[in-house]
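Continuing the batch. This is chain 6 of the set; chains 1 through 5 are on the previous pages. Same settings as before, nothing changed between runs. Recording input and output for traceability.
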Amino acid sequence: MIDGKTFVDELVAAIRSEDADCYASLYAEDAVMIGPLLGEPLNGKEAIRAGEAVLFDAFGAVEADVSSIVSAGRTIAVEVVMRAVNDGPLDLGSGEPLPATGRRIEVPTAWFLQLNEEGKIVSERDYFDTALILRQLGVG
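Output for chain 6:
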């Protein structure tokens, strides 16, 4: 049986490390990630690693404060507040990356994770308010 709190603690530690390889180590090779900033789902561990590397390049001083975890079997739901400083360019899909603003963001977020028998993420769906991020960055 997978302990949801222990797994989320590992995930949060990987995020706080700002190390895309460490983060990707928690995902299965065929994992899928869906989120509001992605446009298209990220398919596969390498795509997830690359996507996270882009975010770690755009945001530093990353904090993830978990407020609740609900787990049943290999399914975990997490409420978390993400905080970070935009200290690198951010590609918002418009073709021209947004230069670093130096602004801090604080975004309530929900993660829904499905793990395989080995305890690796096979599916992740993230939900958060993208308009809030843009306003905090001064572009929305």
